[in-house]
Design a protein that fits this description.
mainly alpha, rod-shaped
């Protein structure tokens, strides 16, 4: 399965697809253990597809988390502008967390 096809799937569809592929991989391994299958490279391809799907799922989850953190940061900034927040370091921590997650996403996309 191509990365472009995987990226088009929703998170729920992707998770279901991963479960199906994992079940299929375990069946393939069992079949190969009992009697060698004709094309053992199918196992390798299946493992790589699963890894590709897990990577994209992680990226999507990170993206959702970044959006949540950004919304929380915006809310904190507004709250701090109206009346100072008890602990202003929360805003710094939130910014730092967002920056870290964005860095991880950029590194994944660069590859």
């Amino acid at each position: 399965m191509k990365s472009a096809e995987i990226k088009d799937l929703s998170v729920k569809e992707l998770q279901e697809r991963i479960d199906v592929e994992k079940a299929q991989l375990s069946k393939l391994k069992l079949q190969h253990g009992v009697s060698p299958i004709e094309n053992p490279s199918i196992i390798k391809k299946s493992r790589r597809d699963i890894a590709r799907m897990l990577t994209i799922l992680r990226q999507k989850n990170l993206q959702e988390r970044i959006e949540t953190e950004k919304a929380q940061l915006a809310k904190l900034k507004v709250q701090h502008a109206v009346s100072p927040v008890e602990n202003p370091s929360i805003i710094k921590k939130n910014r730092r967390d967002i920056a870290r997650m964005l860095t991880v996403l950029r590194q994944k996309n660069a590859k």
